[in-house]
Amino acid sequence: MLQTIPKKEDEFEIIESYFKGLTAQDGVFLGIGDDAAILDISATPKHQLVVATDTLVENIHFPSSAVSYQIAQRALCVNLSDIAAMGAIPRWFTLSLSLPRKLANNSWLKGFSSGLAEVADEFKCSLIGGDTTSGALSISITMLGEVPPGSAITRGGANDGDFIYVSGALGDGAAALSVIQGNEIKHKIDSERLLSRFYRPEPKIEFGQKLRDVASACIDISDGLVADLEHICRSSGVSANVNTSDVPIKDDVRSQWGGNCVKWALFGGDDYHLCFTVPEHLTEIVDSWSADGLSDLKKIGRMTRCNDGVPQVFLDGAAVVQQNKGFDHFGG
Amino acid sequence: MLQTIPKKEDEFEIIESYFKGLTAQDGVFLGIGDDAAILDISATPKHQLVVATDTLVENIHFPSSAVSYQIAQRALCVNLSDIAAMGAIPRWFTLSLSLPRKLANNSWLKGFSSGLAEVADEFKCSLIGGDTTSGALSISITMLGEVPPGSAITRGGANDGDFIYVSGALGDGAAALSVIQGNEIKHKIDSERLLSRFYRPEPKIEFGQKLRDVASACIDISDGLVADLEHICRSSGVSANVNTSDVPIKDDVRSQWGGNCVKWALFGGDDYHLCFTVPEHLTEIVDSWSADGLSDLKKIGRMTRCNDGVPQVFLDGAAVVQQNKGFDHFGG
């Protein structure tokens, strides 16, 4: 039997009360509150539209201990990270919020909408519409961005000989999960930094736009360096070799978790740094950025010809064995 | 504790195997398979972009007995209906599919993707991206459409004296639910028509575009005539009076359910017809359409001045009482 449909009035009130304030007017001809939003794309006719969708489900993408403010920030940042990986500029987003009735209260919704508003404000993107429904807690965001025609960075442009970079230290995401899951901590560790890496990953929006002039391919690291680099390999038709000792890892993570931290940096995911490839003649530009405060930016390997027809990732020259690819970093 | 993150490979395979074929090339610079899709909006610079989002959750928006083919069609049609209500042309959509592991099999996914493909093909819109995740069954679609600048029909343009129309017979959606829920059927009834009204509501895309020249306001009837007309009232700042005897109801529904069917037509929802208002001097045009095969198109009332400051819906001159507004049409 179907349950009672949530009353339209309730949904209307939720949208009116908590989300309507998030619609800025920049390019928004009609915002929240109609059957659809209307955007003035004709105001920016010399752009392509970039569209990314990401869904977060409770107990899969965040623990049930997370507060609504954190959940909202993570949901929006994860979507912004996809826009960053394309070298695009975020503009507008829709929100689909599925919410158990017990959470449809002022405290939860206020936390959620203020978390959303903070990130939206920082990255200058507006909520233009969406819907709320009863159901298991799940947040689906579709983010719209813009990019000058032909300048988006895809996964498919890497060539044999291009150098592989990451925009910062890896393994923080998996280390944060270990902390969230209550695993014992033996050494002094910056847990605030780690938790904020998980709940409020920093989308590399400005850095992504910088990469448009130098990167041949780019992806954001959500599933783990090896898994995501493999997507670049498949899309580009070349293989990759990573020098594992060059993969940047924060000192506190290394001293706390020792051996695990390298696995986490390679397979752990949730870091939301960018992994990108750069043709040799442009590496000088990227290397010079390291001196400009991007100290964690690191060259970690090189794309190689795909000899046997299967594009794949090698670690220090050795193919990644299947069991490592499927390494279950949240097995606790 | 967090569950194991679904393996990236699984998601990649699902998208590759079942959904990649749904990306047409019309305006799609880069489709499924990267961090984001890229659209060539510069090819249609004289349009505004229309964006609608709708989520369907199992046991709330469809029963667990529904097959995947039906669920996909309903999910896409419901979103297309929002685009129709704006008078817009559907172009592209993203899909966020949350799926319990037991349904992540070939049979379920094949049914789902073929249902989606059929509707997408009919309405000439392409799947451009999305994501799949483990979780309770839920489908969130964001639909992008286009409309010539300033010509979209919103909820907010109705004026005192405008006539109210509906594009077809109401009450079918609620009657269909009654059949789905296994309630006894005493008379001969076209249950195939009813079930298809529920699982494959007909988005009024062409009709919506026709309305751009005549309608002052428009909404699609998803929550029930009174609830949706009330949205027009609130947005436009005028009240509405409906002549209940003019509300069109199919003969088989009327003979089967007698008294209930009027309640269903007024409060039942899930009909996905358009409710729209037309200034008096343009009604002749709309009335002439009735002769052109749109036989269920019906004038059902008139917008009235909002005397006491609260825009509301009247039925045969009487205000709708609160308990009727909240009429629980799925209470079984």
Outline the structure in words.
The structure is a homodimer of 332-residue chains. Chain A is α+β, with helices and mostly antiparallel strands and 332 residues long. Chain A has helices spanning 8-19, 68-85, 106-122, 172-180, 191-199, 205-211, 225-236, 251-257, 259-267, 283-291, 322-325; strands at residues 28-30, 37-39, 48-57, 89-99, 126-134, 138-147, 163-166, 217-220, 239-242, 274-278, 298-304, 313-315, 318-319. In chain A, the strands form three sheets. A seven-stranded mixed beta sheet of chain A has the order 8-10-7-11-9-12-13. In chain A, strands 3-6-4-5 form a four-stranded mixed beta sheet. In chain A, strands 1-2 form a two-stranded antiparallel sheet. The first copy, chain A, starts with 7 loop residues before the first helix and ends in a 7-residue tail after the last helix. Residues 1-9 and 324-332 of chain A have low confidence and may be disordered. Chains A and B meet through helix 1, strand 2, strand 3, helix 2 and strand 4 of A and helix 1, strand 2, strand 3, helix 2 and strand 4 of B. Strand 2 (37-39) of chain A pairs antiparallel with strand 3 of chain B.
Number of helices of chain A: 11
* Main sheet specs of chain A: 7 strands, mixed
Question: What would you report as the Rg of chain A, rounded to the nearest angstrom?
Answer: 21 Å
Please give the order of strands in the largest beta sheet of chain A: 8-10-7-11-9-12-13
Number of strands of chain A: 13
CATH architecture of the largest domain in chain A: Alpha-Beta Complex
Q: How much helicity do the residues of chain A have?
A: 25-40%
Structurally, the number of domains of chain A stands at 2
